[in-house]
Amino acid sequence: MVYVFKTSVSAERQAERIIQKLSTLTPNSKCNFDLEDCDKILRVEGSEVTAEQIIAFLKSCNFECLELE
Predict the structure, then answer these.
(1) With b meaning 16 or more CB within 10 Å and e meaning fewer, what string describes 27-37?
(2) Which of 18, 41, 62, 66 could form a disulfide with 34 if both were Cys (CB 3.0 to 4.6 A apart)?
(3) What is the value of pTM for the model shown?
(4) Which pLDDT does position 27 carry in this prediction?
(5) Are 5 and 55 in contact (CB under 8 A)?
(6) Where are the domains of the chain?
(7) Residue 15 phi, psi (nearest 5)
């Protein structure tokens, strides 16, 4: 499953920390950010995580996160 999210993450350092934490939470998932996109896109590919979990995680880190269709 591939999830795509619009986020409020704006800095490369923030994105790296989030990816590191997501990799710990969901070790079999692949995560990446496209911070050059106006929506600061986060893509997560994996079957062991849900969109709701990813949204809750980013919100717990004080970032906005909205799943795109």
Answers:
(1) eebebebeeee
(2) 41
(3) 0.93
(4) 87
(5) yes
(6) 2-68
(7) -60, -40
